[in-house]
Amino acid sequence: MTKGSALVVGVGPGLGLALAEAFAADGHTVALFGRDAARLDKYASALTAEGRTARAYAVDAADPEGLAAALTRAVDESGAPEVVVYNAALINPDAPDELDAGEFAHSFAVNVTGAVVAARTVLPLLRDGRGSLLFTGGGLALDPSPDYTSLSVGKAALRSYVQSLHKQQQGSGVHVATVTIGGYIGGDDPRFSPENLAAAYLDLHRQPQDQWQAELLYV
């Protein structure tokens, strides 16, 4: 049986690229979304050179209309998705007593609102009404940092949204889950290498339905 496409929102040189590579290696046509068009084209070309099928879509996750349009175009060009990963995040150091309202709103747009837009856009398009919606969470959702306040708030809000969506979609054939990463991606601990993390997302997508979970605590 042919596999549906994999849409990865938030593709950079770390986890995002590793996710695209993992799902491409698993036989999915992959669509890569991010702000840097040149970098995305380079990644897609490298995957194509390996015999994979990959397409790049330059878009800002903070732009709801643009993100929805890019996702819809990817489905038109690559077929109905089997898995969608929302990996976009804006990581800015900021203190709770120094937050700028405009910057906080922009951070929330990337960290949370973009995830909502992605979910609402792709839910009706999932292959045969089934598939996985996976979201990159973080340990700051459980233990907020006063040095990264907007990211802490964003990850907490994302976790709450995904768990609500998971409950709503129970019995629908759609697996909704967040991967709460409790370590530094790409640091000294090999467990948190982009490749090992991407393998965990792939395993989560492959889970039998009777084992579906709303959250994978990766600590």
UniProtKB/TrEMBL annotation:
A Pfam family this chain is assigned to: adh_short
Record-linked SUPFAM superfamilies: NAD(P)-binding Rossmann-fold domains
InterPro entries tied to this protein: DHB_DH, NAD(P)-bd_dom_sf, SDR_fam
Identification of the protein by name: SDR family NAD(P)-dependent oxidoreductase
